[in-house]
Predict the structure.
Amino acid sequence: MPKSGVPIKRIAISTGGGDAPGLNAVIRAVVLAALNRGWECYGIREGFNGLLLPEQFVEGGIVRLTRERVRGITHLGGTIIGTTNRNNPLAYPIKDKDGTIKEIDRTDELVRAFALHHLDALVTVGGDGSMTIAKVLAEKCLRVVGVPKTIDNDLDKTVVTFGFDTAVAFATECLDRLHSTAASHGRVMVVEVMGRYAGWIALNAGVSGSADVILIPEIPYDLHQVVDKIRERDAQSQNFTIVVVAEGATQKGGAVSVREKEIGHAERLGGIGEKVAQELHALTGKETRVVVLGHLLRGGSPTHSDRLTALRFGAAAVRALEEGQSGIMVALDPPNVNYVPLDEATRRMKTVPLDCDTILTARDLGICFGD
């Protein structure tokens, strides 16, 4: 029974932000663990849209999750209740009569919606944005437990987030395939991967996939250093080069490459791969090609590691609620799953330490970071 003394009868689960392999595994774990405690479990459609915009959903804004609904979904990518990275309830976009758009806080309305549906607690699955929303809801006395999810692996206080291993595994496979075609044609292949502010995917896939150059947000690059690496390889009769670049990588003194910025929605990064490829071609004269993996990294079945992490997180979230916890995020601290206050989890982003062993290993292998 929760510390508040009010027994839990009905809980809700929401999935917000970008999708990631393992979301359905979390949902299944939460539902089964809740049902085994005699609780009802409901899924909120598309983040919190199901409660803030219920009229948009034919089946209703929330859907009851039964054993039948979650049977056989562990291996499936995506999320059966939908997700969104728009309509943040802390800064919800609305249009004034004059057509201008402003952002308002709808979290009080959201808390009232939970009460209206007699939902006693929330398990919210997402990245830093979702955890920040969860922190505010908890401060408004809603019982909330967060589950960390981001393929970028940039959430602090957890060793890893589910979805990351799957993304790295796929990116590594793509690099393996690109080696043969790059070598056959003597090309420079620039591979753009996700990673807005943290280069974990680019770093781990790049090292695992034997890339020659890795450009990450944490190390602003000098393109002439990359050119030197390409010429060094040419001099050694290695006439091709594999360059992995995170979408948030920046040139020294430059800014991130942004495709669009829309109110109520995080800016869309992209285009850095094309930019790097064009500049390398101009400086080296070598035939250069770009591969943007983009949302391919989000799809597909989760690896066994991501499935297990997701299932452990989901079950731990329900245990936390049963123990009376709120305002916390479950976090992997091997060999255990621990509880971390949401305030600590959202305090800073987990970026790649420049002295971490993987960076040191990459440098020992001769991989160039453009610095």
User: Anything to note?
Assistant: The chain has a mean pLDDT of 91. The chain has two domains: 10-162+302-334, 164-298+353-364. The domain at 164-298+353-364 is CATH 3.40.50.460 (Rossmann fold).
